[in-house]
TrEMBL record:
EC number per UniProt: 2.7.1.-
The Carbohydrate kinase FGGY C-terminal domain, residue ranges: 268-423
Gene3D superfamilies attached to this UniProt entry: 3.30.420.40
SUPFAM superfamilies: Actin-like ATPase domain (SSF53067)
Lineage: Bacteria, Bacillati, Actinomycetota, Actinomycetes, Kitasatosporales
Listed name of the protein: FGGY-family carbohydrate kinase
Keywords tagged on the record: Kinase, Transferase
Length: 472
């Protein structure tokens, strides 16, 4: 048995696989997000308790090894014993938007991107640490490490004497992708030199340890990383330059494998360092994916299992209803950074139906994905994974909007990638072709693809106008 643990933003999952990559069992637990006035926080003890609970459901006596992945960014402050200093600040948090605005205006933002390939956004560690340094210095004083979600879980599962992270999580915003080490000039530019000691040491390759017996059998071999975006790329077999992955989850993440580190152009997204030096994932992780549809469904009191029928009940173009799906409190970060951007719903009349609202939202998310994938440099095949893949109608719509075939990866792809990373780290031979085999290929309809190509141009025009309004 091989176990992958994926500590997501709203759901914690563990999946058990056999040696051929077949899922044996999956367990999931929801975790709460505390949202108030643009702040988004999570209770670390609740998150860890959910990890232990799902592991107890799927673990057996003969666990060969386990791999860990989880949500990225945010700030998870730990003391010297690996215990929480305060609630974790989520990557969805918007409190540092004014700092990002200031750095955009004075050139700091662009300078950081040119050095690291990371376009900062309010919920990434740089702005959040700077905000905490000004508004909650006592928490930073009490902490010995500012880590990422999976790093906290790894330390508590293994009892490691100190917190560490890996190159994938460290990629935003302090890591130099060429040296794979922290860029102290970036730390200085963000006013954090006196907090430099909080940055967790980077384990390259990823850290390993043995489980202490919580959730996993004592002595189980466990590896820490990569974080969820890179783990999903591994689990989808996206490693050849030019191939891409679209993750239709809470975050709408577009990734393209590359060996070309290009720090020119409009600063946006990031370069995620991988376990292979000289290989990166050009990532355009838009802030909101399925979360946008979830909001529409909850607001209209429509159940998730009604989505496919509703998509069939209204034509392409949603009878004139349009959605710009930028629902995050911290604005947007890919393929551009606009902290003040908000969602827009237009073209609604008394004749508009719930089906129109649902289709317009799904189309808007598709247009945002196309924008991100083009900016990331997609030239090869495209895999798709995440909760959105459970809707066949949405997958057909996405293939049409993107105008290309989709290689659908169902199941727990992040957990699968975590296992493959652990196997590589421990020298355990697994058939990666079998582990990353797609479950279906969805082809676009030529007529609808042509229609959506024009719709995409309209989307970009609406977006330009919305960005201008956001800037005041």
């Amino acid at each position: 048995m091989y176990i992958g643990i994926d500590v997501g933003t709203s759901t914690v999952k563990a999946a058990a696989f056999d040696a051929e990559g077949r899922e044996l069992k999956v367990a999931a637990r929801p975790v709460r997000l505390g949202m108030r006035g643009g702040t988004v926080e999570q209770d670390m003890d609740e998150v860890f308790g959910a990890v232990v609970a799902v592991l107890e459901e799927v673990s057996g006596e003969a666990v060969e090894l386990a791999g860990l992945t989880g949500q990225g960014d945010g700030v998870w402050l730990l003391d010297r014993d690996g215990r929480p200093v305060r609630s974790a600040v989520s990557w969805m948090d918007g409190r540092a938007a004014e700092l990002v605005d200031r750095w955009l205006a004075d050139g700091t933002f662009e300078t950081v991107f040119r050095r690291t390939g990371s376009a900062m956004f309010p919920g990434c560690p740089g702005p959040l640490l700077a905000w905490l340094d000004s508004h909650d210095p006592k928490s930073l004083d009490a902490a010995t490490a500012a880590v990422y979600c999976k790093d906290m879980v790894f330390q508590r599962l293994t009892g490691a004497p100190r917190a560490t992270t890996d190159v994938s999580d460290a990629s935003m915003p302090f890591l130099d992708p060429r040296t794979r080490a922290y860029d102290n000039r970036v730390v200085e530019l963000l006013g954090l030199t006196h907090r430099r000691g909080l940055l967790a040491p980077v384990s390259d390759p990823v850290a390993t340890g043995e489980a202490r017996g919580e959730g996993l059998p004592a002595g189980t071999r466990l590896s820490n990383g990569p974080y969820d975006l890179a783990a999903c790329a591994l689990g989808s077999g996206v490693t050849a330059p030019g191939d891409g992955l679209l993750i239709v989850g809470t975050c709408l993440a577009s990734l393209v494998a590359t060996t070309d580190l290009d720090l020119t152009g409009e600063p946006a997204g990031l370069y995620i360092s991988t376990d292979r030096p000289g290989h990166w994932l050009r990532a355009m992780p838009a802030m909101v994916g399925t979360a946008a549809l979830d909001w529409v469904l909850s607001t209209t009191r429509i159940a998730h299992d009604e989505v496919d029928a509703l998509l069939a009940d209204t034509p392409p173009g949603a009878n004139g209803v349009h959605v710009l799906p930028y629902f995050a409190p911290s604005g947007e970060r890919a393929p551009f950074v606009e902290p003040r951007l908000r969602a827009e719903l237009t073209g609604v009349s008394l004749e508009s139906t719930p089906a129109d609202l649902v289709r317009a939202t799904c189309e808007g998310i598709g247009y945002a994905a196309r924008h991100c994938l083009e900016a990331a440099g997609l030239t090869g095949s495209l895999a798709v994974c995440g909760g959105g893949t459970r809707s066949p109608a949405w997958m057909r719509l996405l293939a049409d909007v993107l105008g290309r075939p989709l290689r659908v990866m169902e199941g727990e792809v992040g957990a699968r990638g975590a296992v493959l990373a652990a196997a590589e780290r421990y020298g355990v031979a697994l058939d990666t072709g079998a582990w990353t085999r797609s479950t279906a290929v969805v082809e676009p309809n030529p007529g609808r693809a042509a229609y959506y190509a024009k719709g995409y141009d309209d989307h970009l025009a609406r977006l330009d106008a919305a960005r201008a309004r956001a800037r005041g």
